[in-house]
Amino acid sequence: MSLLLDRFDRQVEYLRLSVTDRCDFRCVYCMSEDPCFLNKDQVLSLEELAQIGQAFTELGVSKIRLTGGEPLVRTDCDQLVSALAQLPNLRELSMTTNGSRLTKLAPNLKAAGLSRLNISLDTLNPEKFTALTRNGKLERVIAGIDAAKAAGFDRIKINAVILKGHNDDEVINLVDFCRGRSLNIAFIEEMPLGVISERKTARHCSSDEVRAIIEQKYPLVLSAERTAGPARYYQMADSDIHIGFISPHSHNFCHECNRVRVTVEGKLLLCLGNENAVDLKALLREHPGDIARLKQVISEAIWHKPKQHDFGAEGDTQILRFMNVTGG
Ligand code: SAM
Ligand code: SF4
How far does CA 148 lie from the centroid of its chain? Predict the structure, then answer.
């Protein structure tokens, strides 16, 4: 099997595949209140998504994460999970979801072959939850988390974006919630995607600040767990859960980056913090089903993966994409 290597000797083993830009929430850090969504023909079809998964796994990618937008608003999502789960070289097929539809869909996803779930949850206060998501219902997400556990998903990870003045007072509550339910948790620094305003930089809360809040109650010890990604994991003496910190601004992880993204429009993004992209959808529509050609284009593109992202230490570089289009 040929491998996906870049000029800096990094091997790409991990693909984030965005399946929709649509979502039932409107999280303040992710999309505008009144987003303009893509038309169906602009979005990769189920077959195109599966072919992209096939090409990447034949090139040595062993982990695929489905994301969006909210993957579960796409009604054929469990069919995609089934198709991808059968790829022989795939070791892990995971999904990042806002959890709002898991009470209904968790058993199907488990049966279709999904191996892991990340579920986003930024607060345990129902009013704050509705304010941050602009319309979400906290109790549905908590019921979704419980349904996922009941369906047999283990090592579920909660993702929390912490914003100063919005939910930085919720950090300990979130840690206690995860301790009580044996869930791992990753605290994510807000990334400067979409339109940046002065308000956005003022609410930036660094991983070091979040860690300091936790350590007032629970001393943390660095864990051996690594993912060749942006997260650093810690543990507490009296719990086996992992607490991760994803810090695109304050800790540069580019030298060991092993991942690329394919957006919902089929653009292969070589780095989240750069605009370099290759249009796989155009190629697939010009040469339907030509996996050999797709693999050739992907390999050549990976060679040009940028050395590092362009986010400044204070989040001052602006990338004019919203997270739901990029695929978080
Ligand atoms: N809808 C799903 C969800 O919310 O989990 C999947 C897509 S969402 C874009 C994936 C992850 O990106 C979520 O955990 C979300 O909190 C995070 N996210 C969205 N916008 C972000 C931003 N500007 N900075 C950092 N993380 C962001
Ligand atoms: Fe939707 Fe996820 Fe973006 Fe929130 S973070 S608006 S749930 S895609």
Answer: 18
